């Protein structure tokens, strides 16, 4: 399994926004969507504030593969559901800290139960 380099983790983790595109069943990329990204140790995570019904999230679930672009890094990735409660608690804190300047009207939906259920770990594809 491939791992993020420290440079990639730093650049993507510090970027305010990430563009994400899931792969369609035929292997072509969906249109990219801009979302927020947080770092937890050596892992990167994204969430859908609309939960599992969001279009981009459903697209990511089709093949669990796609491409991300943030901080000057473009990478093909695998998407893995994250259901660990302790990880989600750390991610809640990461979202609150990183994006607090946008206010609770934007941050609160990212730490709500629906968003927590739509959390994906990004892993670089080798």
UniProtKB/TrEMBL annotation:
Pfam families the record matches: DUF2255
The protein's name: DUF2255 family protein
Organism, as annotated: Actinacidiphila acididurans
Organism classification: Bacteria, Bacillati, Actinomycetota, Actinomycetes, Kitasatosporales
